[in-house]
User: Which sequence fits this backbone?
C-alpha cells in the first residue's frame, strides 16, 4: 500500500504555542481544506472543495486568536476532513463520508478496508496520538488540561437557514458547557445554545470522549456559524468573546 502523504507534504498534525502556560488545549479537527496530492480532487468541483463540506471556514483563525488570549496550545489537522474526519473514530462511516450534506464525494465511494486503513494511518492516528501525548504530558506535569474543540458550521443546511450563532456542545461531562452557558446568560451579543446545531447524538463528540471524558478532564466543543467569522474583524470579535467566556467559566468551575 502506497502512503497517502509524501514526505514533502509534511506532518499532518500541527501544534502551535506548545510552551503555553494556560490550562486550555484548543483542538481544530476541521481546520483545513488541503487535500493530499495523491488523492487529486476526490472527484469534487472547486466550489465543493471550497465549501464547508471540506473544512470549517474561519475555525482555525479564531482558534489562533483564542490561543493567544488564553495562552493555550493549539493542535490542528492540516488536511481536509473529506479525506479523514478526525472527529470520528475509524469505524464510523462519517470518518470518510461518501456523501456530505448535498454533495456526493466520488473519491470516497466504496473504499475498501485497505484504503480506509491507509487514510486512518496517514491522518487520524498521528492526530490522535499527538493530542493524547500532549494531554498525558500535561497531566504528568501536574497541569491537567481543559479540552476545547473549535468548529464552524454553515448558516444554511439542506436549504434551511439556522438561527443559532454559537453552539456550546457537550457529552456526558457538562461542567464546562454549563458554566459557559451560565456565563453567557441570555442578554449577550450572540444567539448561543446548548448542543446546537449538533449534539452528542450526531456523533460529533468523539474528540471530547477520547481525550476529555476518558481522562476525566473538563471539556467542551464550540460551534460558530461561519458567516460570523468570514473576515478578520469577525474572527476577532468572536475569538475575544469566546476567550472571555472561557476565562470566566474556568474560574467558576475550579
Ligand atoms: Zn467541524
Assistant:
Amino acid at each position: 500500500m502506497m502512503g497517502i502523504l509524501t514526505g514533502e507534504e509534511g506532518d499532518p498534525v500541527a501544534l502551535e504555542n506548545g510552551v503555553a502556560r494556560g490550562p486550555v488545549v484548543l483542538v481544530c479537527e476541521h481546520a483545513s481544506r488541503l487535500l493530499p496530492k495523491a488523492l487529486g480532487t476526490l472527484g469534487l468541483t472547486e466550489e465543493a472543495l471550497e465549501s464547508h463540506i471540506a473544512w470549517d471556514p474561519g475555525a482555525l483563525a479564531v482558534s489562533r486568536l483564542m490561543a493567544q488570549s488564553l495562552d493555550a496550545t493549539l493542535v490542528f489537522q492540516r488536511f481536509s476532513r473529506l479525506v479523514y474526519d478526525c472527529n470520528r473514530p475509524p469505524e464510523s462511516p462519517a470518518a470518510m463520508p461518501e456523501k456530505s450534506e448535498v454533495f456526493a464525494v466520488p473519491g470516497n465511494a466504496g473504499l475498501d478496508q485497505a484504503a480506509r486503513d491507509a487514510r486512518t494511518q496517514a491522518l487520524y492516528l498521528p492526530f490522535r496520538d499527538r493530542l493524547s501525548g500532549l494531554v498525558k504530558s500535561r497531566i504528568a506535569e501536574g497541569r491537567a488540561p481543559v479540552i476545547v474543540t473549535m468548529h464552524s458550521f454553515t448558516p444554511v443546511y439542506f436549504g434551511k437557514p439556522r438561527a443559532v450563532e454559537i453552539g456550546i456542545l457537550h457529552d456526558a461531562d457538562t461542567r464546562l458547557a454549563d458554566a459557559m452557558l451560565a456565563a453567557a446568560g441570555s442578554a449577550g451579543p450572540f444567539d448561543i445554545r446548548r448542543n446546537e446545531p449538533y449534539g452528542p447524538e450526531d456523533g460529533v463528540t468523539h474528540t471530547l470522549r477520547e481525550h476529555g471524558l476518558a481522562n476525566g478532564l473538563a471539556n467542551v466543543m464550540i460551534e460558530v456559524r461561519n458567516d460570523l467569522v468570514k473576515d478578520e474583524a469577525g474572527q476577532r470579535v468572536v475569538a475575544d468573546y469566546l476567550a472571555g467566556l472561557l476565562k470566566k467559566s474556568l474560574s467558576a468551575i475550579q
